[in-house]
Design brief:
Length: 659
């Protein structure tokens, strides 16, 4: 237990929770985000790293209430040097005469004094690699490092998910050693090998799940439908617009899958605004005509509600009954819906994944559709597949990722892609601005608001951070309030709010009660606020291109001119890609080539798509290896149900929970 680790009291426990650490395993898996290398230097004017022996007992001077000074002398191999360090009075007792220490700081030759920024209670004779952890105020990187080591000392069992033969094949250190080395690196090469091992393990587990689902799928039969594939035309011709070619062929793919008896497990990939909903609705139509019920799941209630209103309208002239099931649905209403679902009089049920709870029973569920699939994890894929035992499954995602990638991380699915956008939509104008041009940006915002439109403002952090000089949502809202003299109502949205709160904030923005929405990247994918015509992204250099592209898909949702403003310190080449192109697939390829940090083609990671150390984009080669290796591993062990690998028995069981 986390609280049993030496050094973890209630206060620290709280801070660890704030960092997302709840168990000792979380703590061990809290990997450094970077390493600093500290190397001994010569004693010359300027920054130095010097090892020496403490020669005098340190003296503490209290200068002010919040300022104290510790002074002493050390003997280096050539000379005596004065050391001063501020606000470390507490170190006094640790610095005994005769001890060897290393001082990091600035050397002033005239005064023969180092003003130290840090003191290490040991000597270093070769480059020292120091892990650096993300922190929050009240807890330092050093403290985290100590806690991790306390935990490693007592943490009894280590489960290694890499099969032994692969550990040997890649010449990886054993897991315990490599975990230790990641947190306490000795030298560069063993450290890198250890990190590679941890990444590979994570990717292997991930690809195992996907490939396992794939291997199970080939064995299942599905429903077969006898009605002709072209009955779907009746619905298509009722639309007020022409479908794009890609929409048509996606519908053909799906209807064909539904028609034949093999179970469908298809992913519909299409950029934001490419018109995936209509494809889903056409599929529901065909499924309905062939006598089955459908379920459509959205990741949030706002999206579900939006779908409900749009789809009800599209089905107006057909005798198709659509219902919406929400968390807020009253008990009476819910009972009625569940009853009608069971007796088969509801044809399409729309809702969040609560629709898959076990008390929600369908008479004859034939098709399950999930919108914004990247918001659900791999484990949830198996829930979708298992709801109606034979139902076909369609996943939709607005994540334009390169095809080879899609084939890996969605390897258990067939894929249809919508590349082109419907005509008649205005392109979004994207412009770059530097920090110094903020005034311009503010007046553009005000202009837009005066014209009656709404503005999204996105920034990378929720609250101020000591570690990173980046804009945060809380500060930004205050700044905007004072810039606009509190005359413009401003909403605030971020990931630490409860779902209920988030929905209320989104709702208020949608209804125009707030005119500016300041948020982190949590803005709901797929939410339509047609009146929003401007998006401003602060510290745009911190985001992946594909993320920004996804974000700006929130605007330009009608025939109005829309503008996206990217604010960054410098006008980088990378961001120019966004000015020049609005093709999500092209942008994701460029993003991939430029290897932007930490961004999975804008896939907001969730569920078990969250990686602690691996990065799907930067670790493409390891991912490919993990893909091939896990397939082989499954082929060789599936027949005896992974008897030799208990850790995988558990995973396969978690992937096959049936109704
Ligand atoms: P997304 O793929 O992001 O889910 P939607 O399905 O929400 O996109 O579609 C975006 C908008 O484009 C909707 O208002 C929809 O009615 C409209 N639309 C979809 N297909 C076409 C088309 N072929 N021609 C014109 N408008 C279309
Ligand atoms: Mg959509």
């Amino acid at each position: 237990m986390l609280k049993d680790i030496k050094g973890v009291g209630p206060k620290i426990l709280n801070l660890l929770n704030k960092l997302g650490i709840y168990t000792s395993q979380d703590l061990i898996d809290f990997f450094p985000f970077k390493y600093n290398t500290i190397e001994p230097t010569l004693l010359t004017q300027g920054p130095v790293v010097i090892t020496g022996i403490v020669e005098t007992t340190p003296i503490t001077t209290y200068i002010k209430k919040s300022l104290n000074k510790l002074s002493f002398r050390i003997e280096t191999k050539d000379q005596l040097v004065n050391i001063v360090i501020f606000n470390r009075a507490f170190m006094k007792n640790n610095l005994r005469r005769g001890m060897e220490i290393t001082v990091l700081g600035e050397y002033d030759e005239k005064r023969n004094t180092i003003t130290a920024s840090n003191i290490m209670l040991k000597s270093i004779d070769k480059p020292y690699i120091e892990p650096v952890y993300h922190t929050t105020s009240g807890i330092s990187s050093k403290l985290i490092s100590n806690l991790i080591n306390n935990c490693l000392e007592t943490h009894p069992e280590v489960i290694d998910y890499i099969p032994e033969y692969l550990v040997q094949q890649y010449d990886y250190p054993d897991k315990q050693t490599s975990t230790y080395l990641i947190h306490n690196p000795d030298d560069l090469s063993t450290m890198q090998k250890s990190i590679e091992r941890a990444k590979y393990e994570e990717l292997f587990r991930f690809m195992f799940k996907i490939n396992y689902l794939k291997s199970c799928r080939t064995e299942v039969d599905g429903l077969s439908r006898t009605i002709e594939e072209d009955v779907v035309r009746e619905f298509i011709s009722s639309l007020s617009f022409e479908l794009t070619k890609d929409q048509q062929s996606a519908i053909e793919d799906i209807v064909h899958d539904l028609h034949v008896s093999k179970r469908m497990n298809r992913l519909l990939l299409g950029d934001v605004g490419s018109g995936k909903t209509i494809v889903a609705v056409a599929s529901v139509f065909y499924n309905f005509r062939s006598g089955y019920q459908s379920a459509l799941l959205a990741p949030t209630e706002i999206l579900a509600t939006q779908h409900y209103f749009n789809i009800t309208k599209m089905f107006e002239s057909f005798d198709i009954r659509v219902e919406l099931l929400k968390g807020k649905t009253t008990k009476k209403e819910r009972t009625r819906i569940l009853e009608d679902l069971k007796n088969g009089s509801i044809d399409l049920l729309i809702g969040t994944h609560a629709v898959l709870e076990s008390d929600v029973q369908f008479a004859n569920l034939g098709l399950v559709i999930t919108d914004e699939q990247h918001r659900f994890g791999v484990n949830q894929r198996s829930i979708f597949q298992n709801k109606g035992k034979l139902s076909d499954v369609l996943y939709m995602s607005a994540t334009p990722i390169p095809r080879t990638y899609a084939l890996t991380i969605y390897g258990d699915m067939d894929i249809s892609i919508i590349k082109t956008k419907p005509n008649g939509r205005k392109e979004i104008t994207t412009i770059l601005k530097t920090q110094r041009e903020i005034k311009d940006v503010l007046s553009m915002m005000l202009e837009e608001i005066k014209r009656g439109y709404s503005v999204y403002v996105v920034c990378p952090l929720i609250e101020p951070s000591d570690e990173m000089k980046l804009m945060d949502a809380i500060t930004l809202r205050e700044k905007l309030n004072s810039a606009f003299g509190n005359k413009v109502p401003i909403g605030l949205l971020h990931g630490r709010m409860k779902p209920q709160e988030k929905e209320e904030v989104m709702e208020a923005f949608k209804d125009g009660e707030t005119r500016i929405l300041v948020s982190t990247t949590v803005i709901e994918v797929g939410v339509d606020v047609p009146n929003a015509t401007m998006m401003i992204i602060w510290n745009a250099e911190r985001f992946g291109l594909a993320s920004i592209h996804q974000l700006r898909g929130r605007i330009g949702r009608n025939s109005l001119e829309s503008t996206c403003i990217l604010i960054s310190e410098s006008k980088s080449e990378r961001l120019k890609v966004l000015v020049d192109s609005s093709d999500g697939f092209y942008i994701s390829e460029q993003d991939f080539k430029m290897r932007g940090e930490g961004d999975l083609f804008g896939v907001r990671q969730s569920g078990d798509m969250v990686f602690k150390i691996a990065n799907l984009q930067a670790d493409m080669q390891l991912l490919t290896k993990a893909n091939i290796d896990s397939q082989k591993f499954i082929e060789e062990n599936k027949d005896d149900s992974f008897a030799e690998y208990p850790q995988y028995v558990e995973i396969t069981e978690s992937l096959s929970h049936l109704d």
